């Protein structure tokens, strides 16, 4: 048997791999927090990998959900409304099923989406996790770019939050950054100084095209968003995972907050950006060869 790339006592990793192939190599219950920001336009090219993955999870064709729900019933009904749904479900569902398996009993999953797909993913995650495991839908509100004239300009993303066990999940809002009061004159100076706890609507600027955080990776998300999620849903020393990692925002935040992380991406450009961004905080490895990859710029 080959040596596993990841061990609980090892250091943080950036892994170049298709997540469908790499995730099944990780042991059950290893991560306290998982954040994913998956691409929407996945297309049919992903099909071969999806089939392999579904088999590797359960060894059967028509799966029963974790709490006895039949996926095929829900999926069949939804697919009859929209062809694009069929592809989206086939790509994402087996990967989110892996996320469920990889979460620790006190773990939390954050799935970053937008208005085009959030309704599909909500139904999918309700079926996978169980409705009682739904914790929040976070709205990330920003204000950037042009404004459509023929409808309300869309200026938010949606982050669905699910917990593995509604009776045991870790959540510590004392660890998150607080917000200024909108009407400070209406509360005491002590309250103004302390700020207020964030709600499920997070106002945050996008990554500034000229700012310090910018890596050049097109879909990069701001560290401020991820900081809140990591701070509330994991503790120092815990393992966190992003298997659609892109520029490695989760890794950057995790390193600053003293968490250990695994960031996986299939795109060589993403691996290069992460290698540069995360520096000595992680080893960069290829899942295919099992060997370290040279650091960016080396
Ligand atoms: C929206 S981006 C993530 C951006 C990231 N949140 C950040 O802050 O930079 C989605 C990423 O998923 C990666 N991806 C798509 N399909 C994948 C797969 N099957 N396995 C691993 N990564 C994949 C893409 O290469 C892309 O970098």
UniProtKB/TrEMBL annotation:
What GO molecular function annotations does the UniProt record carry, in alphabetical order? DNA binding; N-methyltransferase activity
User: InterPro entries, from UniProt?
Assistant: DNA_methylase_N4/N6 (IPR002941), DNA_methylase_N6_adenine_CS (IPR002052), RM_Methyltransferase (IPR001091), SAM-dependent_MTases_sf (IPR029063)
In the record, biological process GO terms are: methylation
Keywords in alphabetical order, please: Methyltransferase, Transferase
Which EC number(s) does the record attach to this protein? 2.1.1.-
Among Gene3D superfamilies, the record links this protein to: Vaccinia Virus protein VP39
Q: Does the keyword Magnesium apply?
A: no
> Per the database record, which ranges form the DNA methylase N-4/N-6 domain?
32-273
Query: Methyltransferase among the record's keywords?
Result: yes
Q: Report the Pfam families cross-referenced here.
A: N6_N4_Mtase
Q: Which SUPFAM superfamilies match?
A: S-adenosyl-L-methionine-dependent methyltransferases (SSF53335)
Per the record, the similarity remark reads: Belongs to the N(4)/N(6)-methyltransferase family.
Q: What is this protein called?
A: Methyltransferase
Organism of origin is Arthrobacter zhangbolii
Q: Lineage of the source organism?
A: Bacteria, Bacillati, Actinomycetota, Actinomycetes, Micrococcales
